[in-house]
């Protein structure tokens, strides 16, 4: 089956009080073992509101195999409660061709995946369609909703 997804972008920030390598590990932990090294991460130094240093980490996943690996990781590792929350909030999480998810950065560092709104890992799943019904069905078929 051809994936109805064009690409996935992932971004998160490492604040001055955080270990950059640990934040990077949180990002790499989104993918299953053996696939994380395929991820190309771009890092950009920024300044925060009060001039504090922040590093923005971004990755764009275009490879269908790597997209599948990420989606499978989400399907297997998100809790039923989080999948129910995605299903309940889907109208808010879908915008045009995109599905937006936010994951807990600290949990990802500990190799767990769960939703979180504060200082999260931002995931943008860009679909090949903007038809809402198709996107809702896709989320269910991919196992992101319950």
Features:
146 residues, 5 helices, alpha+beta, single chain, 50s Ribosomal Protein L5, Chain: A, 28% strand
Structure description:
With 146 residues, this protein is α+β, with helices and mostly antiparallel strands. The protein has one domain: 50s Ribosomal Protein L5, Chain: A (2-Layer Sandwich), CATH 3.30.1440. Helix content is 36%, strand content 28%. It contains five helices and six strands. The chain has helices spanning 20-28, 64-77, 80-93, 105-109, 132-141, and strands spanning 5-15, 42-47, 53-61, 94-95, 98-103, 121-127. The protein has a six-stranded antiparallel beta sheet with strand order 2-3-1-6-5-4. The longest helix has 14 residues, at 64-77. The radius of gyration is 15 Å and the shape is globular. It starts with a strand and ends in a 5-residue tail after the last helix.
- Alpha-beta classification: alpha+beta
> What is the number of E strands?
6
Measured between the Cα atoms of the first and last residue, the distance is: 21 Å
Task: Look up the CATH topology.
Answer: 50s Ribosomal Protein L5, Chain: A
| Shape call | globular
CATH class: Alpha Beta
Strand content: 25-35%
Structurally, how many domains make up the residues?
A: 1
Q: What is Rg?
A: 15 Å
* Number of helical segments with 4 or more residues: 5
Order of helices and strands: EHEEHHEEHEH
Instruction: Output mean pLDDT.
Output: 94
Spatial strand sequence of the major β-sheet: 2-3-1-6-5-4
Short description:
The protein has 146 residues and is of the alpha+beta class.
């Amino acid at each position: 089956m051809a994936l109805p997804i064009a690409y996935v972008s992932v971004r998160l920030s490492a604040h001055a009080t955080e270990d950059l390598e640990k934040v990077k590990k949180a990002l790499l932990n989104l993918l299953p073992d053996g696939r994380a090294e395929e991820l190309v991460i771009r890092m950009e130094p920024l300044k925060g509101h009060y001039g504090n240093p922040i590093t923005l980490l971004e990755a764009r996943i275009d490879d269908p195999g790597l997209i599948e690996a990420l989606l499978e990781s989400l399907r297997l590792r998100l809790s039923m409660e989080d999948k129910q929350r995605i299903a309940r909030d889907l109208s808010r999480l879908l915008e045009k061709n995109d599905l937006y998810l936010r994951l807990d950065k600290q949990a990802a560092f500990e190799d767990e995946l769960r939703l979180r709104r504060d200082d999260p890992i931002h995931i943008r799943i860009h679909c090949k369609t903007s038809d809402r019904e198709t996107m809702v069905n896709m989320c269910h078929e991919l196992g992101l909703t319950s």
